[in-house]
Amino acid sequence: MTIGPKQLPREIASGIYWLGDCLEQRANGKIYHTYNAAFLMVGEHSSMIIETGHPKDFPLIAKQLDTLPSNIPPVKYLFVTHQETPHAGGLGRILHRYPEAILCGDMCDYHLAFPQYAHRMKSMREGDEIDLGGRKFVVVEPVIRDLRTTWWGFDTQERVLFPGDGFAYSHYHEDGHCGLFAEEAISLDIPEVSAVFADRALFWTKFTDMRFYVDRLQYLMDKYDVKCIAPTHGLPIRDPGITLPRIKEGLLFGGSIPESGTESDAIKAAPTHKKTYINVDD
Ligand SMILES: [Zn+2]
Ligand SMILES: [Zn+2]
Questions:
Q1: Distance, CA 70 to ligand 1 centroid (Å)?
Q2: With 107 labelled, which of 122, 147, 169, 262 sits at a CA distance of 20 to 30 A?
Q3: pLDDT in tens, 171-220
């Protein structure tokens, strides 16, 4: 059964809300969509926003937050995986809107960009945690990182991984994938869309042996017994057992082909890999 597009916010696991909007990108003669997501993680006494969304999406994200149940505890934390615009560009607006909120993660240079908020910044690194009441947010190793300052996060209650750019891929707007989980977007060619994304955002993956990174990713998944993945740009993953092999294939494939440029046929001409997928309908 094909599932149609869904509007955000969407609760992807108990007390974890997916917020934000798609951004259109053109490559290989196609229109690709990617998310610049933010997430709200709700504890018993505090809530945390994870990633800010793209600055252009702030009015929409603010509206989405207003549609959530009114008994949600106050936003006391904002965690950003790294300093790039689609991840951190809305932080001034969020700190303004939530005067109690503390900014968390790697704090490089935020005190210079936002001196007025310098007293509301908390530097965190691997193993540091924040108790939201009934669940903790833990900073974990960022296996696939964009900047050296990147950190990933993990929710101890629903075992959700927040990997920033780590599971980065586009989706097909024409196929109605917007707002779906990766497992619902059955026509999505994850290796292909991962390669398109690697061209634009994770260029270093073309100059290293990605097999080591894929192994380390599995180590992290096993270490934390991850049940759900909430990437900033890709569709959320509800069944890592089905989708993680396709992500790994995408990382290896993206790293194995040359840069495609903006309108070349490099990705289209790459060896067919579609047949090797596990189809969720099977
Ligand atoms: Zn990114
Ligand atoms: Zn979309």
A1: 30
A2: 169
A3: 988 889 999 999 999 999 998 888 878 877 788 888 899 999 999 999 99
